[in-house]
Amino acid sequence: MQARFFSPLGKDVVKAIFLVCLADGLVGISYGSLAVAGGFPLWVPLMLSLLVLAGASEFLFIAIVGGGGSPFAAAAAGLLVNARHLPFGIAVKDLVGSKLLSWLGCHIMNDESVVFGISQPTHEKRKKAYWLCGAGIALFWPVSVIAGAYIGQFIPDIKAIGLDAVFPAILLALIFPALRKRRTLIPAASGALISVAAVPFVPAGMPVLFSLLGLLAWRNKK
């Protein structure tokens, strides 16, 4: 039944979503390992992965608290990093469902589910892609955090493995075909340059907000 529900997406889209979820899982392993190695009990990263479900703010929370900072300051920093979810919510307001279902639909909203959702050609496909990616990450992320916490006990230096580089590498591979078009390349390149320039001046996770300014480089020519 589930296979028939998502079949309109096509094998390529489903495969791409699976790869992104898998990449998220690899990052989750790194996150779980770092959290436990930093002295946190397993329930802390696990509850964050279930209730917050936002990797950047979770990494930030662990880093701030692990470095001796206040949990309140860490939570505030996480909210700031996740400010990008406000425009995301506007973009996918017709994909999250209605009434009680919309609460779950909003909870699984993340960068990846939004991208897959809004990039599909029809409303039906947008909604299915959004939910498949969001639900997939909501499953992969906490499971991988548990796995990472277990694996981290046997790895002397988890940072040396470089698992945090897997996720952006896979995302980059997925967007390469779209970058062949000038209409996509110019805003993407502009956004990347703005984001990199903002890195020294803003908190971690914020440069992605500035990258949205790259959209101003695109003009719809008739």
TrEMBL record:
InterPro entries: Brnchd-chn_aa_trnsp_permease. It is a multi-pass membrane protein. The keyword Transport applies. Pfam families: AzlC (PF03591). It comes from the Bacteria. The keyword Transport applies. Keywords: Cell membrane, Membrane, Transmembrane, Transmembrane helix, Transport. It is found in: Cell membrane. The chain crosses the membrane at residues 12-36, 129-152, 158-179, 191-218. Belongs to the AzlC family. This is AzlC family ABC transporter permease. It comes from Rahnella laticis.
